[in-house]
């Protein structure tokens, strides 16, 4: 019995995606889910090891993300479907875990290395006036690039980022953390993983007082008044630090004004 090569499978998926764009056939969509189900299995396996949730439940939730990706994918954009779909699958699983209040475990060694990476990054920036690459950072931490990327993935998923919360921003009206992300397709829990990592890393480069304000507003969904009471500062100070912090994050994220 002849086997299907990777290239043949990609070609078949591409053809089906083209047909689905035109017909929106449920039969074609189900066939695409079947052909790409390996992406769901991979994500479900990863998260099962992180939180010990039921594997079948994670598969079911991840499948919803895959269906969303199929429905939103556009061949004209030139993206590889697998790269496009993974953030949707991952985001759906993350959303499910957070709704259930599941805590993702982070090994102590990962926590120590993450804290060390913040110090290393700051020193590197002062010396070279730029952010270190993953390779440079991993070398400074004496670990492999793969280990560093795994640490980043675990760290960035430890808590939700409330990206869509509107925040009063002085004279400029309202803004939200999600506006710092260049691709609006991945807002909220569907945010592309690399953008989530960049955003989380940028947060940790801010001075403590500014970071605490942004974390209170965006990560903990507190009002500016609640953050002020929690930190023992005025609401005006909170508002100023939000504006300052968002400005600094824009620079760190490389976001340009239109």
UniProtKB/TrEMBL annotation:
Domain RNA polymerase sigma-70: 57-70
Keywords: DNA-binding, Sigma factor, Transcription, Transcription regulation
Protein origin, superkingdom: Bacteria
InterPro entries linked: RNA_pol_sigma-70_dom (IPR014284), RNA_pol_sigma70 (IPR000943), RNA_pol_sigma70_r2 (IPR007627), RNA_pol_sigma70_r3 (IPR007624), RNA_pol_sigma70_r4 (IPR007630), RNA_pol_sigma_r2 (IPR013325), RNA_pol_sigma_r3/r4-like (IPR013324), WH-like_DNA-bd_sf (IPR036388)
GO BP annotations listed: DNA-templated transcription initiation
MF GO annotations: DNA binding; sigma factor activity
Protein name, UniProt field: RNA polymerase sigma factor SigF
Organism: Chrysosporum bergii ANA360D
């Amino acid at each position: 019995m002849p086997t299907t090569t990777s290239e043949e499978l990609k070609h078949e998926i591409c053809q089906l995606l083209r047909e689905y764009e035109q017909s929106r056939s449920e039969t074609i969509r189900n066939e695409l889910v079947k052909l790409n189900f390996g992406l769901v299995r991979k994500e479900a396996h990863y998260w099962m090891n992180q939180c010990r949730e039921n594997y079948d439940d994670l598969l079911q939730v991840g499948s919803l993300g895959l269906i969303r990706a199929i429905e939103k994918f556009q061949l004209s954009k030139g993206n590889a479907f697998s790269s496009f779909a993974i953030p949707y699958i991952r985001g759906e699983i993350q959303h499910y875990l957070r709704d259930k209040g599941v805590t993702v475990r982070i090994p102590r060694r990962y926590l120590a290395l993450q804290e060390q990476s913040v110090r290393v990054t700051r020193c590197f920036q002062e010396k070279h006036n730029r952010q270190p690459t993953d390779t440079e950072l991993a070398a400074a931490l004496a670990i492999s690039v793969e280990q560093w990327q795994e640490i980043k993935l675990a760290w960035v998923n430890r808590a939700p980022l409330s990206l869509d919360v509107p925040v009063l921003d002085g004279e400029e009206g309202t803004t939200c953390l999600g506006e710092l992300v260049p691709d609006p397709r991945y807002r909220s829990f569907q945010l592309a993983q690399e953008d989530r990592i960049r955003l989380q890393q940028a947060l940790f480069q801010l001075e403590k007082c500014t970071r605490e304000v942004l974390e209170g507003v965006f990560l903990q969904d507190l009002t500016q008044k609640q953050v002020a009471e929690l930190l023992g500062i005025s609401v005006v100070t909170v508002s100023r630090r939000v504006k300052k912090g968002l400005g600094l994050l824009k620079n760190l994220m490389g976001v340009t004004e239109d």
